[in-house]
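Lab notebook, design round three. We kept the backbone fixed and only want residue identities now. Task for the bench partner: fill in a sequence for the structure below.
Input structure tokens:
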């Protein structure tokens, strides 16, 4: 499950920092635009990684491929439509990662075409290609992982806003045991069955869209 290859970790680290920072910035920006000054007041309306990084989540995503950043705090009482607006804010982060994955896929395609036309290769060029590929993978992972309906992930906020009052027991159970469930998903092979299939589907889909086989 854990990949301790230092070269892979170093090449993936820039993509991790970009993916996490843009993810949390998207939450902060959406909440700010919907009238909530909390993220701005707490210094989260920035693309700088420093206010967003959770050290444990950063280490996990570098070693295991799954992790998280420091959640952006919001105050839903500022929203005109609290349930709807909280869903918008919750989805802003994952969909920012999906957009980033597409952008990096385009750059990956440009880099491949550049190599084909100039016959370059090896050394720095291969490093750049690997970094772009990791950036695609990591941002797709962040998109999929954060949509899992387990606290404190974004998918749970969406679920808690759309589920009926009858689902209170489910929400309460997830709140009680969410951290344990999340750890089990990250450190056990269960992630291969829950997270890996949609990640591979989206990755292959984006590469195919750009004509990359």
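Proposed sequence:
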């Amino acid at each position: 499950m854990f990949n301790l290859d230092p070269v892979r970790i170093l090449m993936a680290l820039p993509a991790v920092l970009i993916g996490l920072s843009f993810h949390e910035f998207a939450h902060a920006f959406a909440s700010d635009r919907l009238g909530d000054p909390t993220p701005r007041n707490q210094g989260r309306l920035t693309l700088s990684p420093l206010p967003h990084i959770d050290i444990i989540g950063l280490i996990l995503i570098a070693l295991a491929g799954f992790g998280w950043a420091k959640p952006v705090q919001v105050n839903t009482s500022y929203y005109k439509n609290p349930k709807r607006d909280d869903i918008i804010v919750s989805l802003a982060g994952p969909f920012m990662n999906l957009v980033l994955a597409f952008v990096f896929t385009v750059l990956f395609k440009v880099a491949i075409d550049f190599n084909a036309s100039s016959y370059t290769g090896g050394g720095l060029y291969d490093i750049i290609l690997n970094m772009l590929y990791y950036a695609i993978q990591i941002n797709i992972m962040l998109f999929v992982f954060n949509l899992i309906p387990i606290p404190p992930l974004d998918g749970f906020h969406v679920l808690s806003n759309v589920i009926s009052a009858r689902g209170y027991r489910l929400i309460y159970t997830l709140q009680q045991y969410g951290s344990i469930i999340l750890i089990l998903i990250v450190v056990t092979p269960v992630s291969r069955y829950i997270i890996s299939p949609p990640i591979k589907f989206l990755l292959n889909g984006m590469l195919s869209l750009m004509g990359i086989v």
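Keep this in mind before ordering anything: The chain has a mean pLDDT of 86.
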